[in-house]
Amino acid sequence: MDLSIVIVSWNTHDLLRDCLLSVPEACGSLTCEIFVVDNASADSTAEMVARDFPHVRLIESGGNLGFARANNLALPHTSGRAVLLLNPDTVCPPASLARLFRFAMGKEQVGAAAPRLVDGDGRPVISGGWFPRASHHWLGFLDPRRMWLRGPLADRITFIPGRDEPSRPVEYVTGACFLIPRPALETVGPLDDRFFMYFEETDWCLRAREAGLEIWYCAETEVLHLEGRAAEQAGSFSLLQFQKSYRLFVAKHHGPRAVWWFRLAQWAEYGGKSLWRRMRGDKDLAAAYAARAKLQLTKEISVEPPA
Question: Cα separation of 211 and 208, whole Å?
């Protein structure tokens, strides 16, 4: 078996159908197995998979376990030379996954590899980036539009590749289409299931790099990512959960005392961006940044996953 594909779904019936329909041609001549872990969807997702995709192994989790725990349910059952964690809000063009597989398996010491991600209009979107540092937020405060800082000072947490951006190692790649060679999975282990959603792939990449493995952005293939469509089902939960996972990541890798410094840096960046957007008349984006800034004033974030 070449490739094991794991897709976690929660109320993404139509998105998941399109994703699954795209996979066979995307894999080309690879031998593949597909797992769908359904987190107790209320939109007949599980019934659709069982009825229309009998070749897919359906795992019903029995509740909304989040991304990391649900993926971890399937990992022990996989047998491929590599495992691909794939979002249900992706569509994979013909041969795209085959190219990604061959790219990753053709290099030594690869921990994970991911393609260029594009939106519905074919424009590149966030495909990876740099591990979060408080300096990223302070630089975002000083140069909110990335107009005058150059070189390493222009780096931020997220990375949107240009069309001419070559394949290269990065610090982390986005979990929407996240290929892990089997030896790397055995070395690093599963996702940390304390991350209900967000930062689980960033944490895994950091652990992989600490183990001496490389994380690669692959420019040789691309996958359509309808970014946020799956998360939209969760409403305001996504904003709170993102911040909760961010703080968990910081505490885990920088120590609990570092969390307040990251909160202060985010407050400055998002507060400054909110003011700047309001001055330009963009009230909606100003309000969104203001909500992020205000959240930094909350010491403890309590959030319950949607049922």
Answer: 5
Can you say how many angstroms the Cα of residue 38 is from the centroid of all Cα atoms in its chain? Answer: 18
Q: DSSP string of 33-59? A: EEEEEE---SSSHHHHHHHH-TTSEEE
Q: Are 196 and 249 in contact (CB under 8 A)?
A: no
Instruction: State pTM to two decimals.
Output: 0.92
Max distance between CA atoms of the chain, in angstroms, equals 57
β-bridge pairing 110-118 and 214-225 = parallel
Which region holds residue 56: left if phi is over 0, alpha if psi is between -120 and 50, else beta? beta
In which element (H, E) is residue 169 found?
strand 168-170
Give the integer Cα–Cα distance in Å for 226 and 176.
10
Give the separation between CA 28 and CA 41, rounded to whole angstroms.
Answer: 30
Q: Is 282 helix (H, G, I), strand (E, B) or coil?
A: coil
Q: What is the pLDDT of residues 161-211, one digit of tens each?
A: 988 999 999 999 999 999 999 999 999 999 999 999 999 999 999 999 999
**Is the CATH number 3.90.550.10 carried by domain 3-125+160-233?**
yes
